[in-house]
Amino acid sequence: MTAREDQDKLEAQFAQWRQYVQRRRELLPSDADELEDHLRGSVDELVAAGLSPDEAFLVAVKRMGSLDELSREFAREHSERLWKQLVLTGETGSPVADTRSRRDLWAMVICAAGAVASVKAPALFGLSFEDDSSFYARNFTLFALPWLAAFLAWRRQARRPLIGILVALFALGAVAGNAYPLADKSQSVVVTSIHLPIALWLVVGLAYVADDWRSSRRRMDFIRFTGEWFIYFVLMALGGGVLSAFLFNTFKAIGIVPEEFISHWLLPCGATAAVVVAGWLVEAKQSVVENIAPVLTRLFTPLFTAALLAFLVAVVWTSHGIDVEREALILFDLLLVVVLGLLLYSLSARDPLAPPGLFDKLQLALVVSALAIDVLVLLEIAGRITDEYGSTPNRAAALGENVILLVNLAWSAWLLLTFIRRRTPFAALERWQTGYLPVYAAWAWIVVLVFPPLFSYV
Amino acid sequence: MRSVKVAKDLVAASATPMVLGILAEDASYGYAILRRINELSGGELDWTEGLLYPLLHRLERLGYVESSWQSVTGERRRKYYRITDKGLAELAEQRRQWDTVVDVLKEIWLGLGDRGPLTAIPLEGRA
């Protein structure tokens, strides 16, 4: 073997060793450099003593001891490295990733600024938060979500046709929110204010999955994104609340009441910017921080199951019919949404190939008890829709949602049952849930676009 | 020469003044420090990389040493460690402590020396 070949082989061995070292989270690239230099020093010395490069490398690596031991010692000094930290800009070790994360940061800042500008723009035309609260209630998602969609579309380098569709859908949302002659206090305004955000959020989903909108995996990613986005948004809202409270009380102590600043600037601007910032955070931390939504579902699935079963037992025990007030259907819709959320986020974190376990049975119990409760409610309500009030946009929307969720959960329960009995693969359940997303979108758009004229703008 | 295995605790306790002492002579890098320790102890002190590098990083965090990547002509780029003023002060303090310990040990062992070899102590004590 020539000296040249020896050298190449040695370099290949060094490269392989480096790969092993870099897999350790405790060892940074700079540590790897330092240790490699040490190894090379050791090899040089052994070669000078007469060993072949091959042997020298083996001996030197052996002397350094196992990587496990080495990482353990490093971890004692650098325990902070065991906590995954979110590196927002740079210092990830690779220049390509650094530029990318810096560009992401700038795009986020621009989009957040755009969202803030859009929420304050109507004020220029004399629309104030007090006098035109109904305008802001209908449109608040229209100020922020297009910017979030823009950020996502930019990040995924969406193609022109998709961008066109996104713009068209947001424009349609703006029309639906504002074109109908709805009175400020009418039921339809409330119904639109609730359903337009749902419709627009699924438009954001379209930007999220970009060109691959048929893929079940990508849709599941969007469901994961939604859960994490929601949690980040809530956390930021809590932080914002603390900030407002301090701002208000400290300034009040010196005789200035910053009420107008907080309610006209801090809250609306902060909330719209937070929509974009939360989206960016989820994208930036995707592979760094563990998803929190599945952890919460693991905690709360048993508790909700117990609560629902206790409720069912109480209903049977007292033989007291469920008292369906005007708002009750909404309450039970929300219950189904929570159960669906618990189901979805457990699905999103589950290894599709794992065999059915105790937790899957627990979920089946949760879904079945929720269904049983809902059926009781529907029986109670069946006669009510034709009673003296007649049907109203509120009731029709709530009933429609109930039916949609009921169908989803009933089929999910069936799929869960067959999965537990090992008749169908887990993927069937996942496909059912991701395939159902367009149904929510379609219903939300129907409520927003068709309901106001259908109920003659009540 | 009989091989003496220095206990782990003692190695750990003495490592800091040794590293600071070597760096007080001149700036150096990990491999050279390890070699120097090996030479000075005649191979008795067997430091591992897992001991040396985390120690160097800790000393850096405490501000006793500072590091920089340098390439001396004709050699590889290396991470050199240099002692700081704070490190020199720490070295002086450690030296004072070690001198005290060593002095006491010497006093004790010299006193014992008059009474013969160490292994004979229990017998003498009984007599």
Automatic annotation (TrEMBL), chain A:
InterPro entries: Perm_prefix_1
Keyword Transmembrane helix: yes
Keywords, ordered alphabetically: Membrane, Transmembrane, Transmembrane helix
Keyword Transmembrane helix tagged: yes
Transmembrane portions of the chain: 105-129, 135-154, 161-183, 189-209, 229-249, 261-283, 295-317, 329-350, 362-383, 403-420, 432-455
Protein name in the entry: DUF4153 domain-containing protein
Source species: Planosporangium flavigriseum
